[in-house]
Automatic annotation (TrEMBL):
GO molecular-function terms, A-Z: sequence-specific DNA binding
Protein name (database record): Lrp/AsnC family transcriptional regulator
Coiled coil: none
Keyword Transcription regulation belongs to the record: yes
Gene3D superfamilies registered for this protein in UniProt: 3.30.70.920, Winged helix-like DNA-binding domain superfamily/Winged helix DNA-binding domain
HTH asnC-type domain mapped to chain residues: 7-68
Cross-referenced InterPro entries: AsnC-type_HTH_dom, Dimeric_a/b-barrel, Tscrpt_reg_AsnC-like, Tscrpt_reg_AsnC/Lrp_C, WH-like_DNA-bd_sf, WH_DNA-bd_sf
Organism name: Paenibacillus whitsoniae
SUPFAM superfamilies in the record: Dimeric alpha+beta barrel (SSF54909), Winged helix' DNA-binding domain (SSF46785)
GO BP term, example: response to amino acid
UniProtKB keywords: DNA-binding, Transcription, Transcription regulation
Statement: the UniProt record of this protein carries the keyword Transcription regulation: yes
GO CC terms, sorted: cytosol
Length: 153
């Protein structure tokens, strides 16, 4: 649960409503909270300016778009190559997220791919060929229980 206690109750409610449906209008939020559309708009602008809200986005259904293989990769990299490998992989359109992790110099990456053949091609042409890659552990998702788009309320 996200701790919103440093925000006033109105901002907390605005964030909750936008998190449920980022397409909700400021006028509708105003109706719910008994405030004007302009007051809601100003508060949202302040939340953006303060860096609380980073962006508004949508979640696409990868399977319906032909990306049926969801895979996580633990990419062990020589420390001096971690930054370059991370930046290179981050540019790949199949990569959903990539993080440098503690411990051995490793990158944790999530990618969405068309099929197993695309997974194999991705491994050999996009990961293994990079200087500094020592080992790759790949795990395919078989069932999703929850997927987030950042902090959950």
């Amino acid at each position: 649960m996200l701790d919103l206690h440093h925000l006033d109750p109105i901002d907390q409610e605005i964030i909750k409503r936008l998190h449920e449906n980022s397409r909700i209008s400021y006028a509708r939020i105003g109706e719910i909270l008994n405030l004007s559309r302009v007051a809601i708009q100003k508060r949202v602008e302040n939340l953006i300016e303060d860096g609380i809200i980073e962006n508004f986005t949508i979640r696409l259904n990868a399977t319906k778009l032909g990306k049926v293989v969801s895979a996580f990769f633990e990419v062990e990299v020589e420390p001096r190559h971690a930054e370059a490998v991370g930046n290179t992989l981050a540019e790949d359109p199949n990569v959903v997220s990539i993080y440098q992790m503690t411990g051995m110099s490793s990158l944790h990456m999530h990618a969405l791919l068309r099929d197993e053949a695309a997974l194999e091609q991705f491994l050999y042409q996009n990961i293994y060929k990079l200087d500094g890659v020592v080992r790759v552990n790949t795990q395919m998702v078989i069932k999703r229980f929850k997927q987030g788009t950042g902090l959950e309320l």
